[in-house]
Amino acid sequence: MENIALIESFSEFKDDKLIDRVTLMAILEDVFRNALKKKFGSDDNFDIIINPDKGDLEIWRNRIVVADDEIEDDNQEISLTEARKIEPDFEVGEDVSEEVKLIDLGRRSILALRQNLISKIHEHDNTTIYKQFKDLIGDIYTAEVHHIRHKAVILLDDEGNEIILPKDKQIPSDFFRKGENVRGIIEGVELKGNKPMIVMSRTAPEFLEKLFEQEIPEVFDGLITVKKVVRIPGEKAKVAVDSYDDRIDPVGACVGMKGSRIHGIVRELGNENIDVINFTNNPQLFISRALSPAKVSLVTLNDETMHAEVLLKPEEVSKAIGKGGFNIRLAGQLTGYEIDVLREGVEEDVELTEFSDEIEAWIIDEFRKIGLDTAKSVLDQDVADLIRRTDLEEETILEVVRVLKEEFED
């Protein structure tokens, strides 16, 4: 039969890495049967024989021989006269198989066939890619920078799949050049108009957890378990680790001699400061460890409200709170408790909530976010430092300081 352009394309599809022979044949048959239905009204009496390896196919129409004046359905029946043009000894009632040439379908049908075939193959490929990356969600993946846009970096993997790294999934210090490899976790994938949209993240806590698995053999082997990870991407992270083997020091194994093991992870995350903490089921001890490098004198818990009051020597307070309030915020996220800092040896102090008639609640909340929940804890801070660490205007902070000072002057 004629080796039309449609058939020539079989060789392209049979080499497609995403499609197997059985699936390809099923797609081809489906495409041709749809074309036959449009042309003849039904495809029930057609046999389609496909050989994608050779780039060939045959279509046979099966009809019953009837008398010349008794034809009711010319797709299912053939007149005796027409049948004898194929084989002179055909009789009424016999079955006739006749090959249908693709050229008989018409040029427009052939073009539509090819387009439909390409569309079906791409649809299958996209579904396969979607399923492939659905299984990779939460795993580390490496791809190459292809294009840098304002709101996202477009990456390509070795198979040519497009992966999106949005701006808000990038570490603030990230700087990419075209052609360089980028690591992150596959955070999600969805079909957008039959095309898979694959999203990578470098800011997710799971990325740091997976880096621990990759870089630290004891974590990979399951000797050390990463219990929880909390992050402020590019700034600070806290990782709670544990081991069922008492002979293993989880923190020491993760950090390595002079930080040798964790150094690669820190560098990957743009010098993010990583605290590795021994996990414990004792909440007081866990909170004390989570506030490292500060040394905690006493922890008092209220399990009903999930609040913890932490007593510290005055010189330890700034360590517990940390730069930008990051340390106390992450400690709270790691332990699940809202942590209030109390200064040891400070007898007279007043909770900020006591000033709610003069200071708006949202302003009090801004101070609480950085671990300042009493009047003296605010007054002990430098105004310039408070402006930098909170989202409050200088005028607002000065007014708060004035109100608090009046309390102690009275």
From TrEMBL:
Please list the residue ranges annotated as the NusA-like second KH domain: 283-344
Q: Identify the domain of life.
A: Bacteria
Q: Which PROSITE patterns does the record match to this protein? A: KH_TYPE_1
Primary role: Participates in both transcription termination and antitermination.
According to the entry, every stretch annotated as the Transcription factor NusA N-terminal domain falls at 6-125
GO molecular function annotations of the record: DNA-binding transcription factor activity; RNA binding
Matching Gene3D superfamilies: 3.30.300.20, Nucleic acid-binding proteins (2.40.50.140), NusA, N-terminal domain (3.30.1480.10)
Any GO BP annotation: DNA-templated transcription termination
Q: Which HAMAP family match?
A: NusA_B (MF_00945_B)
Q: Which family does it belong to?
A: Belongs to the NusA family.
The record's subcellular location field reads: Cytoplasm
Q: What is its main location?
A: cytoplasm
Which ranges carry the Transcription factor NusA first KH domain?
A: 202-278
Q: Return the protein name.
A: Transcription termination/antitermination protein NusA
Q: What is the lineage of its organism?
A: Bacteria, Pseudomonadati, Bacteroidota, Flavobacteriia, Flavobacteriales
On assembly, the entry states: Monomer. Binds directly to the core enzyme of the DNA-dependent RNA polymerase and to nascent RNA.
Q: Which UniProt keywords apply?
A: Cytoplasm, RNA-binding, Transcription, Transcription antitermination, Transcription regulation, Transcription termination
Q: Corresponding gene?
A: nusA
GO cellular component annotations of the record? cytosol
Cross-referenced InterPro entries: KH_dom-like_a/b, KH_NusA_2nd, KH_sf_prok-type, NA-bd_OB-fold, NusA_N_sf, TF_NusA, TF_NusA_bacterial, TF_NusA_KH_1st
What CDD domains does UniProt report for this protein, alphabetically?
A: KH-II_NusA_rpt1 (cd02134), KH-II_NusA_rpt2 (cd22529)
